[in-house]
Amino acid sequence: MTAYIIIRINAVDPQLLKNYQTATPPIVEQYGGRFIARGGPVVTLEGPTESQRIVSIEFPDLSHAETFYHCLEYTQARKLREGVAVAEIIAVEGMMSPSQ
Fold first, then answer.
1. pTM, full prediction
2. Given strand 34-38, what is the order of strands in its sheet?
3. Which domains does the chain show, CATH number per domain?
């Protein structure tokens, strides 16, 4: 069942965050993921105004999402974010479509 990694990220230094942003896409792809949303405009519809960058990545299943997050390549890429941004990252399993 499809799964998603959702990231809320607050960049302390947006310019230095670009190193992380450049390193991540090939790793996401290598582990079967694809970006659904990547820091575009956000409109708060309910609750506190969202001011952080939002990223959503789709994976074939929760196992792929977890494998990506814990892989050596992404562990090294995360180091590019240290001192540059603070992130909250969750993985969530999607719902089965009615036809399944």
1. 0.91
2. 34-38, 53-59, 3-11, 85-93
3. 3-93 (3.30.70.100)
